[in-house]
Design a protein that fits this description.
CATH architecture of the largest domain: 3-Layer(aba) Sandwich
Number of helices: 13
Order of helices and strands: HEHEHEHEEHEHEHEHHEHEHEEHHE
Strand order of the largest sheet: 7-6-8-9-10-12-13
Structural class: alpha/beta
CATH class of the largest domain: Alpha Beta
CATH topology of the largest domain: Rossmann fold
CATH superfamily of the largest domain: Response regulator
Helix content: 25-40%
Length: 351
């Protein structure tokens, strides 16, 4: 049986500037979808001979789920002076949600002799890239602490062959609990959705425990590491009488926002996640980092390395923008009145 993601490579346009009109994003998605129908003969574990430098792109999911992120990456790469097909080639490997395949896919990129490896989409991807090479420059993008994860020596002076971009997604998990408490000031119990396989889950749960002690509430941790376990998160939240369900930051959850929104509505559970994709799909609330900026900075760093800069000399960029999205239609369906103070804090209110 072929390794997941191995038959989904082709050098392709990364997509248009994400600030352009919506049809540009549809063009990005169309180009991503084209990958799936190309013959296996066009796939190869080794980069094709080319006079252009090659970026090896390691994705934990599929091109479709990464489409908007790819657009932001292309914007950053363009800002650094590189356009795919003109100045640089791309070699993709996709894990299709099978995160255990990431180390093998990262090794394929390393063995192909790519010029730079890009590892966006969380700690799992970055750690897989790290395991594959100590010489090829790597640009990661994640929401955790790259120092604590052992990726770099420090944010200011990464050392080694890795640098990248980090956001506040992991750090602000506790803030999601605080927002949920604002909605349910009388609730004494909240459910927490956590992926036990996540490299950052322990630190997030510790932060949530500290927040719960400050708020005077109890937490019940519910585990899910596959989409088959998602429904149980919502039925269990209802069964224990929790005020609401708070998701920890995890890429696997983020890329399945639409399914989570459907289940939250079906079971009538007030829910908050890290990704704006969740309320945009009909969920109640989200609070997390701006993925467009983090992926854009990843593209900029990839371009700077192609120009000759060393990862060891490029400080890890920290994207500090955090956005709160609230879906009032979802709140109305749940019979909730969102406090004015919470509404005034929102970056986007969906009516």
């Amino acid at each position: 049986m072929p390794v997941a993601g191995r038959d989904k490579f082709v050098s392709q346009p990364l997509g248009a500037h994400p600030a352009q009109a919506a049809p540009c994003r549809r063009d990005v998605l169309a180009s991503m979808l084209a990958i799936c129908v190309l013959p296996a003969a066009m796939t190869s574990a080794r980069a094709q001979p080319s006079t252009l430098p090659v970026i090896g792109y390691l994705g934990s999911e599929s091109p479709e789920r990464y489409a908007s992120r790819l657009g932001a990456f292309a914007q950053g790469l363009s800002e650094a002076g590189y356009v795919e097909g003109r100045d640089v080639s791309m070699l993709f490997r996709w894990a299709d949600g099978q995160y255990r395949q990431l180390p093998a896919l990262a090794k394929e990129l390393a063995d192909a002799g790519v010029t730079v490896m890009v590892a966006p989409g969380g700690a799992e991807v970055a750690l897989a890239a790290k395991s594959a090479t100590t010489s090829i420059p790597i640009v990661f993008e994640l929401g955790g602490d790259p120092v604590a994860l052992g990726l770099v020596a420090s944010l200011a002076q990464p050392g080694g062959n890795m640098t990248g971009v980090t956001s506040l997604n992991v750090e602000v998990s506790r803030k999601r609990l605080e927002f949920m408490r604002e909605l349910f000031p009388q609730a004494q119990l909240f459910a927490i959705a956590a992926n036990p396989t996540s490299p950052t889950v322990k630190s997030q749960l510790a932060n949530l425990d500290a927040a719960a002690a400050t708020l005077g509430v109890e937490l019940r941790v519910l585990h899910a590491s596959t989409s088959d376990a998602f429904e149980e998160l919502f039925t269990a939240t209802r069964a224990i009488g929790a005020g609401g369900l708070v998701f920890t930051s995890d890429p696997y959850f983020t890329y399945r926002s639409r399914r989570l929104a459907e289940l939250a509505a079906q079971h009538g559970v007030a829910t908050i996640t890290q990704s704006r994709d969740f309320p945009l799909a009909g969920g109640l609330m989200s609070y997390g980092g701006d993925f467009r900026q983090s992926h854009r900075h990843t593209g900029i760093y990839a371009g700077r390395i192609l120009k000759g800069e060393k990862p060891a000399d490029l400080p890890v960029q920290r994207v500090t923008k955090v956005e709160l999205f609230i879906n009032l239609k979802a709140a109305q369906a749940l019979g909730l009145v969102v406090p004015p103070a919470l509404l005034s804090s929102a970056d986007m209110v969906i009516e």
